[in-house]
Amino acid sequence: MQVANASNAYRLAYETIRNQILTGELTGGTKLIEERLAQKIGVSRTPVREAIRRLEQEGLIQEKRVYKPTIADIIHSSEFRTLIECYAIKKAANNMSEENLKYLKQAVLDAKTGSVEEIVSANNRFHSLIIAESNNPIMIQEAKKMDAIFYLFNRTLILNKRPLLYEEHVQIYKAIEARKPELASRLMKEHLECDLQFMLRYTRKYK
Amino acid sequence: MQVANASNAYRLAYETIRNQILTGELTGGTKLIEERLAQKIGVSRTPVREAIRRLEQEGLIQEKRVYKPTIADIIHSSEFRTLIECYAIKKAANNMSEENLKYLKQAVLDAKTGSVEEIVSANNRFHSLIIAESNNPIMIQEAKKMDAIFYLFNRTLILNKRPLLYEEHVQIYKAIEARKPELASRLMKEHLECDLQFMLRYTRKYK
DNA sequence: TTGTAAAATAGTTCATTCAAAAGTATGAGG
DNA sequence: CCTCATACTTTTGAATGAACTATTTTACAA
């Protein structure tokens, strides 16, 4: 997880709360109480309130509670993400530089072994590198925002050892390297669909 | 423009500032001064600050200034929007109910004549109805957020009487009615591309 | 018990305050 | 006349207090 960038109280509050949600320290549905958060973070209520407003807009907090994605939410996020990634990957297959291809390959390899954190991180890097090829900062930013929500369940994929994750990434990488946009896009779509299905299986178990 | 929903000071501040940005009362680049805003709205600085945090996350405020889209921003937003709308319109062409088709037709007709506000509003309704057919609340919400930015320049299209806007909407409507997803999608793409080009011409003129 | 009203407690909202930072004007020295 | 240091002003950041609201607990009657 990212280290909090605490240039001021508001930022500290924002980063701290956000991290706690993403790492699962604050679990879905938990009621957020300004004063307690303020105390814990070591700032006053004002910056906490500002942080909450921002996180509300970001979707991680709803009605003073930690957002808990429903099954429908997961499906919808996945659909949206698929749209963006499949678009970006076509551009990637057409334009990705040799240098970026190297980074991409590294991300694939890094996700083969290691701790959960390492795998999640390499996994995210893989997808980020592809989205970056959209060359569209607005799209990149939107995808990043969605990541917050995805992060919550990406961990589940790893923790539960979703099979073939590595193999699929290899296939996708090869399609990009071979400059085959349509194939890459199809593989990505299938890959994300598998993620979703795997996710849903586990989500239902909890519920 | 939407009427402010002032159930509390924070909401009042948020809606007021947002509206002022969208209507152009607060123009791009303007420095926002908390105290002056607070005074004008009739609340204290605290809720104003919360509103600003939220608007920052929404993209309408950046570094305490009213967001002023650059040409690159306009191009990127347009690309993103095109991606979403072309996706949604295929679903629309496949699934739109007869009832919704009626509303869509009405939106097309309403945008033929009337005041600028009326045309802008009908125009937005047309696009919203199509996006709604994605049946994906997350996508709908994202598109809505982008609308805030688009609104700023959609007005320009009307004010400057972009030609063929009505005719293109008719063509798109017909493609949906005829249940031709690929055609509809292509027409939408061309339509949005024309919007963009027209926009760029005017944007360059200003600066 | 069970339901309900009153009281107590906890939490939120907003205004106010003060300190720190940023910005601006003024004037002395080049 | 320009430049830079210094004083002054404006603006922001953050804490706190007071008023209001919601929630929980308690107490008592049915």
TrEMBL record, chains A, B:
Domain of life: Bacteria
Keyword hit for DNA-binding: yes
Keywords, sorted A to Z: DNA-binding, Transcription, Transcription regulation
InterPro entries (UniProt xref): AsnC-type_HTH_dom, GntR_C, TF_FadR/GntR_C, Tscrpt_reg_HTH_GntR, WH-like_DNA-bd_sf, WH_DNA-bd_sf
One GO MF term: sequence-specific DNA binding
Residue ranges of domain HTH gntR-type in the record: 7-74
UniProt name for this protein: GntR family transcriptional regulator
